[in-house]
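@channel sequence for tomorrow's demo:
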Amino acid sequence: MKNVPWILALSLLVCFWVPVLTYAAEIDYRIGEGDVLRVLVYDNPDLNTNARVSGQGTIIFPLVGEVAIGGLTVSQAAQKIGRELANGYIRDPQVTVFVEEFRSQRVTIMGEVRTPGLHELSGSTSLMELISKAGGLTPDADFQATINRKRSSPQEAEQQINVNLRDLLDRREGTADVALQDGDSVFIPRAGVYYVTGQVRRPGSFRLEPGTSVIKAITMAGGFTELAAQKRVRIIRKVDGVENVMQRVPLHMPVIHEDVIVVPESFF
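structure tokens (generated this afternoon):
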């Protein structure tokens, strides 16, 4: 397939820029089952504790006993432990929580990546970092990614997040990397394709970009030759599996997936 340099560039830049993108996103990790936490209480070293989060999302902490912190961010967990300690144990406690081992969060990425499947999240993980973990995009990958996110409660519908990878790479205004959560499912589809044949300078197959018109498609194919019948361009388009021939199509007409654009030779 032609016209894919940006995919190769994206795959390479993902590998090198992921740390920068991840830290820039300032993602706050959410604690879950299996994580090992290091809890420090300022000026009270006897309370400093390493604890693994149980299947019920709790840890056992000195003085206060069982504390439910599953699903909280690291900073929220520190605040909650601090409130428990302040409840009759320590005056104005200063609590800090670190994640020593990340074991709770897993996501799935499928579609046009080199190693699809299940991946464990090691702390704060963004979409771009996950793509890197999955070996980068294949040459046939689309520029759109879809993240399906589990419901946080039975009353909520599953959330679907659509991400334009090109906008993300270009860091366009209003575009930010996406923080992944436990149970997220990411899908990167195969890009659409169209074909240009006949009296153009570079006939072949091309990646379908948003807003591609007939004239843009012909331009991507090098433009008309001097023998082209520019007013007799036709499109062979499949509708419900049946090929339809559209004659004398306007040059501003949108192109869709698997269109075959035919530029005939002029009789004059």
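heads up for whoever presents: Residues 15-27 have pLDDT under 50 and may be disordered.
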